Amino acid sequence: MLRRGVGRRVRIETGEKMSSRGRVLFERLKRILAGEEETASAGSDKRLLVATAVILLEVALSDDEYTESERELIVKILREKFGLDDESVDELIRISEEQRRESIDLWYFTEIINSRYDSEEKFRVMEMVWQVIYADGRLDKYEDHIVHKLARILHISHARMIEAKMKYMPDG
Question: Alpha helix locations (H) across 10-67?
Answer without folding.
Answer: 20-33, 40-61
